[in-house]
Amino acid sequence: MAGNTPPKVAASATTRAPLPSGIALLGVRGSDRDPRALVRLPDGRVVAVGVGSQLGRQKIIAIDQDRIALSKGGSAEWIELP
């Protein structure tokens, strides 16, 4: 029955929302020992990153189930799933 979703059901099950500007967290996967995150960069590229990865001048310092922490200049910023 794949592909036969009634239009009303598809419309009510789909939410359109713009992604935030800047770095956006798209998803998190992996294990507790090796968490990975999928992020969209300000230029639109999508990259997989891990703890220690550099994103411009910022560094990934933590990855949780639904957010990542970026460090820049001694302060940290959490980015959550939209």
Give a verbal description of the structure.
The protein is mainly beta and 82 residues long. It has one domain: SH3 type barrels. Helix content is 9%, strand content 46%. It has 1 helix and 7 strands; from the N terminus they run αβββββββ. The chain has one helix spanning 7-13, and strands spanning 24-30, 35-40, 46-50, 54-55, 58-63, 67-72, 75-80. The strands form 2 sheets. The protein has a 4-stranded antiparallel sheet, with no helix packed on it. It has a 3-stranded antiparallel sheet with strand order 1-2-3, with no helix packed on it. The longest helix has 7 residues, at 7-13. It is elongated. The relative contact order is 0.19. The model has no long low-confidence stretch (mean pLDDT 87).
Please name the defining characteristics of this protein.
single chain, about 80 residues, mainly beta, SH3 type barrels, four-stranded antiparallel sheet, three-stranded antiparallel sheet, 7 strands, about 10% helix, elongated
Q: Taking Cα atoms only, what radius of gyration do you get, to the nearest Å? A: 16 Å
Distance between the terminal alpha carbons, to the nearest Å?
A: 30 Å
Proportion of residues in β-strands = over 45%
Poorly predicted regions are none
DSSP strand tally = 7
